[in-house]
Design goal:
Blueprint lengths: L1 H14 L3 E2 H8 L3 H15 L6 E5 L3 E6 L4 H5 L12 H13 L2 E2 H8 L4 H9 L3 E6 L7 E5 L1 H7 L12 H27 L1
Antiparallel strand pairs: 1-3, 2-3, 4-6, 5-6
Helix pairs in contact: 1-3, 5-7
C-alpha cells in the first residue's frame, strides 16, 4: 500500500493541477474503494505539523498544495500570484451562474435586470467560469458554468456544498432589490424635474 501511496504522491506532485479519481484508478490499476483508502492515508500524513503540503479534493479530483501557513515563505521565492478582484457585479453574476448552472447570458441578465457582458468576460479571464456548451434554442446561446478554480477559490469540494438559501431569504432579497429600483427611479425623476 505504501508503494501505491507513493505513486499517487508522485503523480499529484508532477501534474501540479488536479487529477481525477478515474485517472488515478486507471494509472494505478485499483478500484475506487482502494483509492479512497489511500487518499485518506495520504491526507492524514499531510495533516501532520511537520508537513508543508496538503491534499485537496475538488469535485472528485485531487491536488497537492502548499499549506496556507507557509505561503509567506513561498512568495519570497515565487512571484506572488495575482488574486482576482471581484466587484459586486461580478460576485452577483458568479452567484447566479453557480446556483443556476448551466445558464445563458440572457438568463443572467434577466435575473439581474442589467447587462453583464463585462462581468462574464472578467469571470472567464479569471477562470472562475467556462463555457458549458450551447443551448438548443434560437441563436444557440452559450451556456456558462463554474470551474474547478471557482471551487478552489471559494473552498468547496463541489457545487453541492454551496450554502442553501431558504425561500424567505430569496423573498427578502427580491423585496430589497425592488425597493432599490424604486428608490433609483424616484431619484432619477427628481433629477429630471430640476
Amino acid at each position: 500500500m505504501k508503494k501505491k501511496q507513493a505513486m499517487i504522491e508522485g503523480i499529484l506532485f508532477s501534474m501540479g493541477d488536479s487529477v481525477s479519481k478515474r485517472q488515478l484508478m486507471t494509472a494505478l490499476h485499483i478500484n475506487e474503494e482502494v483509492l479512497d483508502y489511500l487518499i485518506e492515508c495520504l491526507k492524514k500524513e499531510y495533516e501532520k505539523e511537520e508537513r508543508g503540503i496538503r491534499l485537496l479534493e475538488f469535485d472528485g479530483a485531487y491536488q497537492l498544495c502548499t499549506k496556507p501557513q507557509y505561503y509567506e515563505q513561498l512568495i519570497q521565492i515565487v512571484n506572488q500570484p495575482k488574486k482576482p478582484k471581484l466587484t459586486d457585479v461580478m460576485l452577483e453574476t458568479l452567484s447566479i451562474i453557480a446556483y443556476k448552472q448551466p445558464v445563458t447570458k440572457q438568463e443572467i441578465e434577466a435575473i439581474r435586470g442589467v447587462k453583464c457582458e463585462h462581468a462574464i468576460n472578467k469571470l472567464l479571464e479569471y477562470h472562475l467560469i467556462c463555457e458549458a456548451g450551447r443551448l438548443d434554442a434560437i441563436g444557440r446561446p452559450i451556456l456558462f458554468k463554474t470551474t474547478e478554480q471557482f471551487l478552489r477559490c471559494f473552498g468547496v469540494k463541489s457545487i453541492k456544498d454551496l450554502p442553501v438559501i431558504d425561500r424567505q431569504q430569496v423573498e427578502n432579497f427580491k423585496m430589497e432589490a425592488q425597493e432599490e429600483i424604486k428608490y433609483a427611479l424616484e431619484e432619477a425623476e427628481e433629477m429630471e424635474e430640476e
